[in-house]
Amino acid sequence: MEPTRDKDIIDDLDKYPRVATLTESQPAPIVDEVSNVLSYVGYAPLGTKVTEAKWKVLRVSKTGNVTTTEYAGGLMLYNQIWNDRATLTYTR
User: Which residues, in sequence order, are CB contacts of 26 under 8 Å at separation 6+?
Assistant: First the structure.
């Protein structure tokens, strides 16, 4: 059996779909640290304006030793406006 060459591996890459990890397919979030017990985290594609309804917004709160993450609208969708983060409804 002949050893695998780098060229064989590169040729095989064209045969299969590429799977992107979350960190590769999503830019780093915007984080608004309101206090030491409350933060908002926003994810959106690069180039999205903070006034567009294309954001996934999370509210992270801490009570004692418990940290809770809730999602705007109760869903993990990219359909919120980042600038509205303080007035959105959050649930799990």
Answer: 43
Is the model more confident about 49 or about 6?
49
| Number of DSSP helices (H) and strands (E) in the chain, helices first | 2, 6
The tokens describing 34, both together, are 């309101």
DSSP 90: E
8-state DSSP, 45: -
Tokens 């908002």 found at: 40
Claim: this prediction has a pTM higher than 0.90: no
Rounded-to-integer distance, Cα 86 and Cα 79, Å: 15
Taken in order 33, 34, 36, 42, is the CA torsion positive or negative?
negative
